[in-house]
Amino acid sequence: MTLNDVYRKGEEMLLNAHIPDADVDAAYLMEHFFGCDRARLIIHGDENADDAFTEKFFSAIEERKTGKPLQYIAGIWNFMGYDFYVGKGVLIPRDDTEILAEEVCSYLYGKKDVKAIDLCSGSGAIAVTLGKICPDCTVEALEYSKDALEYLKKNIALNDAKNVTAVYGDVTVCCGEYDDGIFDLIVSNPPYIESDEIDTLQQELQFEPRMALDGGQDGLYFYRIITEKWHSKLKCGGMLAFEVGERQSVPVSEILEKHGFEKIYTKKDLHGYNRIVCGIKK
Ligand code: GLN
Q: Model-level pTM greater than 0.90?
């Protein structure tokens, strides 16, 4: 088979299995297994495809047909220009979360001797990006899932983020282990989907850890807990920054207001939804 044959067959198999964006996924897997991006495919598409890689490619296509996320199949995913290992047990870094990562990086950029904590850190996408872009910042990355913690540690090592430390802990209780007024920034992309909504969402999501998605009955459980239990850990003038779900920017802003935050603002994602809520501790 030529590279073109492999690509077309893969795309067709995904199309027949009703996988959305079959062409994008097949192209991604071509690049992943053959190092052959779209431009190369146009120029070298009539060359013979290596048998071993072809076999790997089609077994990945078979996995993708079951709805398994492409990111888990590839085992690695890029976020803000950094690579992160991903797989069963850890939430896949989303494009939406880049809005939050950009915001906290620009907040701490250029500041010396500052301290941040990323709560519900997961793969470490936010913490590692922050640590890399702000090398004078110390970042703690807190995670409660043992599976996710393993990915977090591997991702810190993969990116050689020496100023980032993985910490095992339950965000709802371990705040007691930190002194008041020590952080310049608390950032979190907590689980925020309403419990009853999870089962109705796309197939790919069902492969991801429920623990990383389930935000309780109204989806706001972690915003309340984190704001209530962690606000005293911020310095005055420090920032609390959250990623939020599509209908959550108003209630989350209210939670921040209730706990004495000021200069509360939101920023939109590429689809036009308010995706982050940030506030400054008075
Ligand atoms: N943005 C994710 C989704 O909708 C949810 C992530 C989260 O709960 N923090 O799939």
A: yes
